[in-house]
Design a protein that fits this description.
Length: 448
Amino acid sequence: MRDGQTSGASVLVIGAGPAGLFAAGALADLGVNVALLNRDLRPGGLAEYGIYHSKHKVKSVLRRQFGKILGRDEIVYYGNVTVGESADLSLTQLREMGFDAIVVAVGAQGTKWLGLPGEDLTGVYHAKELIYAYNSLPPYSELIFEIGKRVALIGVGNVMADVVRWLVRDLEVDEVAAVARRGPAEVKFTRAEFAHVIANLDLDAFDGEIERVRARMEAVDQDVATAKSFILSAQGRAEPATSETRVGFRFLSSPKRIVGDAAGNVVALEVENTALVLNEAGVTKASRLGTTHELDVDTVIFCIGDRVSDDLGLPIAWNAYVKHPEPRYAVDGISFEAYDPERAEAVDGVFVVGWAREASTGQVALARKDALACARSVSAYLEARESTPASGEAMLRLQTALEGLGKPLLTKDAVVRLHEIEAAEAERLGVEAFRFDTNAVMLEALGL
Ligand SMILES: Cc1cc2nc3c(=O)[nH]c(=O)nc-3n(C[C@H](O)[C@H](O)[C@H](O)COP(=O)(O)OP(=O)(O)OC[C@H]3O[C@@H](n4cnc5c(N)ncnc54)[C@H](O)[C@@H]3O)c2cc1C
Ligand SMILES: NC(=O)c1ccc[n+]([C@@H]2O[C@H](COP(=O)([O-])OP(=O)(O)OC[C@H]3O[C@@H](n4cnc5c(N)ncnc54)[C@H](OP(=O)(O)O)[C@@H]3O)[C@@H](O)[C@H]2O)c1
């Protein structure tokens, strides 16, 4: 590394979830000064507000790691700042401040709509809004969700497993059906996550469902017994049932329409039957058969992943911000460089990482790996530049712009104090963890 190019540079990181925090830490290791902006008051992103609400141990381990990163002298943190075209500061404004590079680590905050009739009915939700709500993220924590008694979840990944866990253990609904466009061999949840709900699986109905789709699985040479035993293997670690909720699956069924009544409430989910076909790479795809059937439900929850926000001001493709197809600073073959396909050029000096780079992909460990690689990519970009680092001027311009917002911002000291106040409150209440669930009470507790 040529000293004076990377070391001493000023980099802005937008988003303080795992990807932004680990990237900030890796950049600080290289002697870079980092300003970290975050929409939420507290850092952590989905590690705080996505990971299941009762996983206190995992969350506190991650919080400690993040605290260490934030404690670095090279890093300044501003929570309660949203970047976007219609937000506190736009990406264009931030680019004009003269940072040596900008890392976009805002996660996938948009909604992946399928454009189905009935998506706007009362009782139709996307998993993220419910997950944010049960994890006490403002303003979702204050929204009212009309969850009925018979719930269909579209998608069979770990997010589905988390939401089912909440429906079974917290809400104790009557029935839950996980709807998959492919079959039992293509479920994406892990045994560990399904173990929280398998005690509620209706085993007779599950056997019946496997037989219903057996011929379609065997048509592509799938081993039905293996697929079935993977799902049932969660029984070995099953968490005991605490409700009467019946959990089931509906395989080889692609959502087609959500049926509503005159009052605009969900009364059914219409799905189209699918067959499995193998593509050229040997991967199974769902192929619509033209026939449909209805599931008698009053709530539909999409657990199909998210897309990035349109408001940030970067071009989007395949649910994520567009990456340079011919990156100059690829790391391990991965492009982190933002790209404008209309102008066919890089968005110079702007990098994307984590779920902003690949929406709804992987766990915290993957976000960390991505962040470390992104920091290497940024470093290579800084080293290759002709100009010298931007000194502290960009930081000062940012500070002035933030002061001009006229709203309370959280510094890293305030984050530490917030955690201390909440820990003291948990102790006073005799509970494992306590969290303020509105910005107003958090700010009041901090005297801001
Ligand atoms: C329901 C659910 C449960 C999960 N459970 C686990 C688990 O148990 N274990 C595990 O390892 N992984 C889990 N994951 C995956 C893990 O949370 C993600 O891999 C990781 O959080 C992605 O990190 P990220 O930083 O890219 O995005 P995020 O975590 O989404 O962080 C984005 C950050 O950007 C900020 N931000 C957003 N928009 C803006 C903006 N416009 N301006 C400024 N700041 C902005 C947000 O405030 C947030 O802090 C789970 C994911 C989900 C959805
Ligand atoms: N405890 C944990 O560690 C934890 C918890 C939650 C999330 N996570 C991680 O976070 C990431 C995101 O999880 P996720 O569950 O949102 O994603 P996921 O694992 O990719 O699962 C998404 C599901 O939605 C289905 N789907 C997608 N588009 C669809 C469409 N148009 N129509 C019908 N079905 C559709 C997918 O089916 P196909 O397979 O057919 O595409 C799949 O079943 C994953 O990496 C996950 O492991 C981890």
